[in-house]
Amino acid sequence: MTVYETPLPGIGSRKEIELRDGRRIGIVSHRDGHTELIVSSLEDPDACVASVPLSHEEAASLGALLSAPRLVAQLEDEHAEVPGISTRQMVLASDSPFVGEPLGATRMRTRTAASIVAVIRAGTTHPSPGPEFLLEEGDVLIIVGTGEGLRRAAEILSL
Amino acid sequence: MNTTTLALIELGAILLLLGGLGRFAARIGMSPVPLYLLGGLAIGYGGILFGRDLNPMTHDSELVPFQDISEFTHLASEIGVVLLLLMLGLEYSARELVTGMRASWRAGLVDLVLNFLPGAVAGWLLGWGAAGAVVLGGITYISSSGIIAKVLGDLGRLGNRETPVVLSILVFEDLAMAVYLPVLTALLGGLSVAAGAQALGVALLVVAIVLVVGLRFGPQISRFVASPEQETFLLKVLGLALLVAGLAGALQVSAGVGAFLLGIAISGATAHSARDLLEPLRDLFAALFFVLFGMNTDPRTLPPVLGWALLLALVTALTKVATGYWAARRAGIGTAGRWRAGAALTIRGEFSIVIAGLAVTSGAMATDVSALATAYVMSLAIIGPVLTRYADGVGRAAARRQSRLAGAQTASGRTADGRTAGGELSLD
């Protein structure tokens, strides 16, 4: 994928990729560090239909949401030969009882036989998190298990 | 009451007024600059407070408004100009300027010719001589990079394709200022055209040297200014800026240009923290500069030049639209984007006032200059952003008309090539 970068003198720079339908999607990174998400218009390719300022945290969370499916797909590929096992991503909602709790408190393996193999937070992937790993709101949990195990895992997390 | 207490009361009242005006400007989403000028007009010579029995030519010392703080406001407004230009320089790194120049020199030259000439011709027709023509040319030439960047951000147009075209024209203008101001200083100092040409040569040389030094030694200069404590950093940056500005002024290069070039030489993280630190100071001193400019403009000198100012605003709005349209078209931007680029460039602001301020303080120019500049900037600083907002709709309508026309022509048996050419012609 080619990323096109255009300097914006006095402001920062614009980095974007071109989508299959010809639209541009990307960011304007301001020199003071904040980011703006931009999506170009179909009707007028020079203009933008959306231009949304994002804080550091928001940008990182959005990045995690966008990159999680790819990680899931990779893991699916890796254990494709094991029938009955699949991978899901689950977002820890703000009302989950495990926000601020260590991962061990979910007792996930004991209760569902499914394992949390990675946590994506603020754009960074934390692989194989230990039981002491503290969960936060908005964490994307990558969970591997059987269909039944994953269903129960979803129930436990959202209880 | 002694003079110090009086001065405190007067200064406090002025700042409070400016704060209120700024708040109002922010609420209706416009630049505060025109309102600061208006505030200055209202409270200054011939304004509502001091309007009676005052001859604008011989300011009666008994009636001089805010006399107790006149020395302070004079110096403060000089510092305001230095800080405005220092902040402008801090916005750019030498590298950005060089790449921007390379991308935009053609559009920059078109911009210079189309927008300097109307002002220069008007100055000549008004009988203000060579210096007057150069002053008025500069006032109509320079767009406000500050207000434009703000307006484009507010309208969510930073991601648009025509925006880099607009910004690189602004880079050209801002660099052109560094050459223009020394020439202006020489001309206003009553020097001959030959001395003006010499000043031009010196200015070009100095700008070139600063760009090379900025490219090569930017990090070293930045490190010299940088300091871990905010307090010492502020003192170092401000001290260096005033020192360089003063020296540049003494060398006839113009104080503002010295500060601007210093700003360019400082780059990276140092420039970033310097911007954060100096912004409130710039806001304070620049506001005092604008209000003092307004105060020194007698509102009664406005009506005679109002017609000229509005005519000039109309003509130079059109020439800026033409510049932006042309530049965007060269960059391969569609019809709607060309109109957006053109409209954004019509915004004039702080630097037109800086130029007028230099002309007035030199004493070489008729006081009409400040009245004309005030009316001119007030109209384009207010109308420009409105034009920019609605250029999108106008541009889209133009693009639709164009494609309709093109459709009609294809129906009558034109080739695909003839279609685009026909569509473009219909617009001009």
Note down, in words, how this protein is organized.
The complex is a heterodimer of chains A (159) and B (428). With 159 residues, chain A is an alpha+beta fold. Chain A is 25% helix and 36% strand. In chain A, a hairpin with a 3-residue loop joins strand 1 and strand 2. With 428 residues, chain B is an all-alpha fold. Chain B has two domains: 326 residues, Na+/H+ antiporter like fold (Up-down Bundle); 28 residues, no CATH class. Chain B is built from 16 helices and no strands. The longest helix of chain B is centred in the last third of the chain and has 44 residues. At the A-B interface, strand 1, strand 3, strand 4 and strand 5 of A face helix 4, helix 6, helix 7, helix 13 and helix 15 of B.
Q: In a nutshell, what does this entry contain?
A:
Chain A is an alpha+beta fold. Chain A is 25% helix and 36% strand.
Task: Indicate the topology.
The complex is a heterodimer of chains A (159) and B (428).
Chain A: E1 4-8, E2 12-18, E3 24-30, E4 35-40, E5 48-54, H1 56-78, E6 85-91, H2 108-112, E7 115-121, E8 124-127, E9 140-146, H3 147-158
Antiparallel strand pairs in A: 1-2, 2-3, 3-4, 4-5, 6-9, 7-8, 7-9
Chain B: H1 3-27, H2 33-43, H3 70-91, H4 94-125, H5 129-141, H6 145-154, H7 163-188, H8 193-225, H9 230-250, H10 255-265, H11 268-295, H12 302-330, H13 335-345, H14 350-362, H15 368-411, H16 416-427
Helix pairs in contact in B: 1-2, 2-11, 2-15, 3-10, 3-11, 4-5, 4-7, 4-8, 4-12, 5-7, 5-14, 7-8, 7-10, 7-13, 7-14, 8-10, 8-11, 9-10, 12-13, 12-15, 13-15, 14-15, 15-16
